[in-house]
Amino acid sequence: MLIASQMEPTYARRVYPCFDEPAMKATFNIRIVHDPSYVALSNMPAIDVSEMKDENGSLWTVTTFNTSLKMSTYLTAFVVCDFDYVTRTERGNKIRIWARKEAIGNGYLDYALNITGPIFSFLEDVLNVSYPLPKTDLVALPVLGAGGMENWGLMTFQEPSLMYLPSDKFTSRKAMVTLIVSHELGHQACEWFGNLVTMNWWNDLWLNEGLASYFEYLGAIFVDPKLSLDKIFYDHIVQPVLREDNEIVRSLSESEDKIKGSFSLTSLFDSITYNKGASIAWMLSGFLTEKLFIRALTSYLKEFSFSNANQDDLWTHIQMVIDAQDEVQLPASVKQIMDSWTCQNGFPVLTLNLTTGTVRQEQFLNKKKRRSTDPNNNTWIIPISWMRNGSSQPLMWLDKSSKVFPEMQVLESEYDWILLNVNLSGYYRVNYDQLNLKRLAHVLENDPKAIPAVSRFQLIDDVFALTQFGYVQIETALELTKYLAREDELFIWNMVLLNLVPQNLKTTLKNYEVYPLLKKYLLKRMLPIYHYYAGFIHKNVDALEDDYFAQAYLGKLFATACWLGLQDCLDLSSELYTKWMENPEYKIPFLIRGTVCCYGVAVGSDKEWNFAWEMYTHIDSAEDDKDILLSAMSCAKESWLLYRYLQYGLGDPLFSSNCTSTVILNVVAKDIGHRMAWEFVTENWPLLSERYGQELLHDVLKVMGRFVNTDVQIQELQVFYNATLEEDEREATTLLLESTKSENIERRKLLIKIARWLEKNVDD
C-alpha cells in the first residue's frame, strides 16, 4: 500500500476544507493517523509519534508534524509508505531520499542523493537566500501524474526521475535525473518561484515554472560540467517550443478572466509555460547579463518572501537594478520589453537585407495556411546578438517593425557574412536574403567551426521551419546541407535527419525516386561521423559514457545509416546480433541495440526471428529490451514471418493487451507490412474490436493514412470503417483521411522538388 498526495493546481480542496487559492497563504498543523507498520511524511519534520486504539481495539500510530511556515495550499503534502531512505545533511538541512526498499538496497538512489545537497547549496549561494526548512524529503513514487512536484520540504518524483541504475550508464537517464532534481530544487531553495514567493494567481504560472526551468540548467551545469548544457538547452527547450508556439493560441501571461473563461488550469502546465518561460528567462538573463539578473532576483526574493507577486513586481525589481548602474543600457523600460514577449502570442521572425542593412520583424505564421487579409501587426522589442565574419558585435535592439542598421550593410568583399541571434540567445527565428545565405553556405563548406555549434543548429533548423511555413523554397534549405561531411556534432545531425528523413516518412520515402538520390547524397556526408562513432562501438564503447548526445541520438544516426542501406551498418548489425545469438549473455551496446536487433532480424531469416521471439518470451528480459524486441520482430523482410507475428500477437497469452496493438502498429508502419496488417485488422476485426475498441482502429488508420494518395484508396478504407464506426466517428475519420491525402499530395510535390535538386547536386 502507498498513499501520496498531489495538490497542484486545485486538489487541496478535495483533501481538506480550504480557500484553495495560491494567494491565500496560511500555516498548517498536520497530523496523520496510520497503520503502525508504515511511516508518515509531510512538509515539516515529525515532532511526535504516539499510539491510539480505535473502537475495535486495533492499534494505530499518530504522527504529528511541526507547524508549517506560511505557504499556499497547493504545496501541502503527505505520504504514507513502507519505504526505506538514504540520507545526508547539507548545511544543517537533513536530506532524505525515500524509495522502495529494494531500490534503496540496490543503490539506485545514490546518484540523486549525491547531487541534491550540492545543487541546494549552489542555488542558495547564487541567490543569496537560505533554505528556511530544517529538512527535505524526496520520494520516488511508482506512479505520479507529473515528472516531479515541488511540495515544500516533501518533493515527489516518478521513480525514473530519481533512480539511476548502475546499468543505465549508456542512457541519457543520468542527465534526466540531474535536470529534474535540479528543477524541483529550483522551486525549493530559491523559493522565488513557487514556495517562498508565489504567483498571485495561476495566470503567472510561468514565473514559477519558467524560472525553475532556467535554474534547472544552471544547477545541472554546476553538478555535471561535462554536460554541454547550452546545446542541450537549445535542443530540448528552445527548439521544440519554437516548433509548437504558433499552433498554441495563448501567450505566456494571460489575464485571469481569459483563463477562467477559456482554459482549464491543468492545460497551463504545457510547453509554453515551461519551455517558452525558460527561453524568455534565458533571453532576459542574456541581455541583462547574468550578474544583474541574479542581483534583481535576490532583491525581489527578499521583498516578497512568504507573500505573493506577479510579473510586474519582478519587472520593477529588474528596473531598479538597471537604473542603479550604467553598463547595460536598454531601449525601453523592462516592463515594455518583457510584456512584448509575455503578453503576445507566438514570436517574431526577423528578415535581414544584406545590401541595405535593413532588419524587419513580423509574427512567424504559416503563410501556406493564412489568409492574406489577417491583420498581423504585432511587434516585439528584440535584442539582436550578432556576429560579422566570425567576430562578435555589440548587442543591437529592434524596437519597431523595421530599422536600418548601417553596421549590417555589407562591404564590397564577396565573403563578408552576418549572423543574427548568435547561439539562439533570443526567442525568434531569422530569415536571411539569398546573398547572405550563399555566403553562409560558403562559410559552412570551408570552415564550419567559424559559426558556433548552436548557431549552425539554429541556422539549419530556421531555414527548414521557414520552408515549412512558406517563407523560402526547399532548395534554399538544401543548399545549407552540402557541408555536412564536415559536421561532427550529433545534435545537429539529429535535427537535419528529423527534417530530411522524418520518422513517419521512412516507410513511404522508399517508394519514391527520391530515395536512391537521398541515399547517395546523405551517405556520402554521413560517413565521417558514422565511422567516428562506429570506431567506439567496435573498440571501446565505454568511452561514450559521458557523451550525452551519443546517448540521445547515436541510435537515430545508426538507424538512418542502415535504412539508407549502408553496407557497413548492415554488416555491423548482423555481426553483433549473431554474437548475441551465439552467447545470450552478451550485451549488444545499448546505444544502438534497437538498430542492431531490427537489422539483425531484417538481414537474417527465420532463425534470427525465432531467436528474437525466444528472448522476448524469456520472462526475465528487461522492459527496455522487451520493447526493442517487440519492434525488431516487425523488421522481418519475409511476408510469412510478419504474418505469423501478427497471429502470435492475436493469440499468444504472453501478450498483454497493449502489446497486441503495438505489434499491429509496428507491422503497419513497415513498407512490406502495411497492406498485410490492414488486411489482418479487417479480417480479425470482431475479435480486435471486442478487446481494444475503436482506439486501435484510429491508430491504425492514422498510420495507413500515410500511404493514401488517391481517392480510390480512401474509398477502400472508407468501406471498412463505414461498417464498423458510429456516424460521428465516420465523419471525423473521413476528414482525417481527406486532410492526410492532401498532405500526401503536397509532400509528393515537395519530394519531386527535392529529387530535382538532388539530381543536380548529388555528385558535388
Automatic annotation (TrEMBL):
Cofactor comment: Binds 1 zinc ion per subunit.
Sequence ranges assigned to domain Aminopeptidase N-like N-terminal in this UniProt record: 2-75
User: Peptidase M1 membrane alanine aminopeptidase domain location, by residue?
Assistant: 111-341
Q: Which cofactor does it need?
A: Zn(2+)
- Which catalytic residues are annotated? E184 (proton acceptor)
Asked whether the UniProt record includes Metal-binding among its keywords, one would answer yes
List the source organism.
Oxyruncus cristatus
**Stated name of the protein:** Aminopeptidase
**Gene3D superfamilies per the UniProt record, alphabetical:** 1.25.50.20, 2.60.40.1910, Neutral Protease Domain 2 (1.10.390.10), tricorn interacting facor f3 domain (2.60.40.1730)
Return the broad EC class: hydrolase
Per the record, the domain of life is Eukaryota
GO molecular function list: metalloaminopeptidase activity; peptide binding; zinc ion binding
The principal localisation class reads membrane
